[in-house]
């Protein structure tokens, strides 16, 4: 059986055709433009491929509740062209196949749990730190969702005492995303992240915020592994700083060999999958979702 | 088939015998003393009852990982007599039946999801605010656990601008439990919670902290209902204050009819089950765990 997979991102869509063994057999990357331009390209790619189901991991907010009338509809995303666009229904109706939808970060968590750096455990958290901050969680065979999908990037954090930057989030100003995503780094320090690579205080502050978030995620979710990806995490010096801050913040409260100086570098890790993570996760969704 | 159920709390143990329909047929409450006193009473209650399995919802930290060598062992609980006590193994070996273990708050979440105020949804969070603060989550048939069980009471929160109290948590000083559990109320204001019932500023500050926690839980877990129990929540004036603060903090970011002024009183609610919640949840654990 052939299956379709879509990784719908803010800057690009990755389209794939694969099989039940999880192999991607054909792939195409297209830019994210207005739906009137992007969607016909998606249809054109899939329409003669003979797929029987389609999995889609999408940027959000997106309705992922299968029982909802607006399943697969984009919600009030900052990408204004896509607000209220019924992506799921359009694909289902045009291609004539069932479409299974989850968030991009939930799909990435599932992909890492199946084929990546969490394949030896039953639970994991995937967090991306880039233009925005988002996270998805995989627990014992399913991704975490309920009322809606999690929006973990918008949690409240304590301000760093040296930070006077007011934050970029239009909803909450200085939530985690508002003070620790890529755009806030650039606005606070006046340069892009990669131009700040040698400035220690930049990464100490960034690690302080990200470690607070991870500490809360550990207390609330207790994942067996945390995978950190996204553009900002290409600054590899962040990993040891974040790990050190997490251990200090937990202060020995949670008993686990992973949460010790010796093993925390096996607990907070970069992704194991690179370019195909999203589209492979969407393929998994098509198979099992 | 007869099944045993234990709600192991910090001040009392509730012991029950029930059936697969979820009915409690026999019950006994005993105080939580030294294990050498309490455990023989538990054995005496169950040994002639003919139970085939036993479920236990216990205070923590407790090892709830079924694959662990120390499954069912108490960890570094503030109840020093119980530290490292292998409660699960003692009951299994003495009574000769399988023992299924989860935390008291996970069991309460499951119980509310099956028989209480979350029986119409598939996911819920149960939080208790009393001597300590703990929470458990139920998602699509299972309670949330991974590396260990969640310890949601220990998350970081932003200080209220008028609060100079340094906090009671021996691990983190001013984590949520350290500044919002019953003992911190008493130490900050010099009186017990129920003696402060008419002092508006007490409950405004308390609601500010609890609403921060709920806001983070909503962003991270997205439960379909939040149930708030425990001694501090007997101050019913907290509910409208917490609901109002949660809506202000979310600021419309999460799309759901529940997260509106009109419906939030159906989203953040008191428990539906009273005295038998813990022991009924433990019975459910014995049946399905």
UniProtKB/TrEMBL annotation, chains A, B:
<keyword id="KW-0862">Zinc</keyword>
<comment type="similarity">
    <text>Belongs to the ROK (NagC/XylR) family.</text>
</comment>
<dbReference type="InterPro" id="IPR043129">
    <property type="entry name" value="ATPase_NBD"/>
</dbReference>
<dbReference type="InterPro" id="IPR000600">
    <property type="entry name" value="ROK"/>
</dbReference>
<protein>
    <recommendedName>
        <fullName>fructokinase</fullName>
        <ecNumber>2.7.1.4</ecNumber>
    </recommendedName>
</protein>
<keyword id="KW-0460">Magnesium</keyword>
<dbReference type="InterPro" id="IPR051804">
    <property type="entry name" value="Carb_Metab_Reg_Kinase/Isom"/>
</dbReference>
<dbReference type="InterPro" id="IPR049874">
    <property type="entry name" value="ROK_cs"/>
</dbReference>
<dbReference type="Pfam" id="PF00480">
    <property type="entry name" value="ROK"/>
</dbReference>
<keyword id="KW-0479">Metal-binding</keyword>
């Amino acid at each position: 059986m052939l299956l379709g997979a879509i990784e719908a991102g803010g800057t690009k869509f990755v389209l794939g055709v694969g099989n039940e063994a999880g192999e991607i057999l054909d792939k195409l990357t297209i830019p994210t433009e207005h739906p009137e331009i992007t969607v016909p390209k998606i249809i054109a790619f899939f329409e003669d491929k003979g797929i029987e189901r389609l999995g889609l991991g999408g940027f959000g907010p997106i309705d992922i509740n299968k029982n909802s009338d607006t399943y697969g509809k984009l919600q009030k995303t900052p990408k204004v062209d896509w607000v209220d666009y019924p992506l799921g229904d359009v694909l289902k109706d045009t291609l004539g196949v069932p479409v299974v939808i989850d968030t991009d970060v939930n799909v990435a968590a599932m992909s890492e749990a199946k084929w990546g750096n969490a394949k030896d455990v039953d639970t994991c958290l995937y967090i991306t730190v880039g233009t925005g901050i988002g996270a998805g969680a995989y627990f014992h065979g399913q991704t975490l969702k309920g009322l809606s999908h999690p929006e973990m990037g918008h949690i409240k954090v304590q301000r760093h005492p040296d930070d006077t930057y007011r934050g970029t989030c239009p909803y909450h100003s200085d939530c985690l995303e508002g003070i620790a995503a890529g755009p806030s780094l650039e606005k606070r320090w006046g340069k892009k992240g990669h131009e700040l690579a040698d400035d220690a205080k930049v990464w100490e502050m960034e690690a302080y915020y990200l470690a607070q978030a991870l500490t809360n995620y550990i207390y609330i979710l207790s994942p067996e592994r945390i995978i950190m990806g996204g553009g900002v995490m290409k600054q590899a010096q962040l990993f040891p700083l974040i790990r050190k801050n997490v251990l200090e913040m937990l202060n020995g409260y949670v008993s686990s060999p992973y949460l010790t100086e010796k093993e925390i570098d096996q607990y907070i890790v970069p992704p194991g999958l690179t370019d195909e993570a999203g589209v492979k996760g969407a393929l998994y969704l098509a198979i099992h979702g």
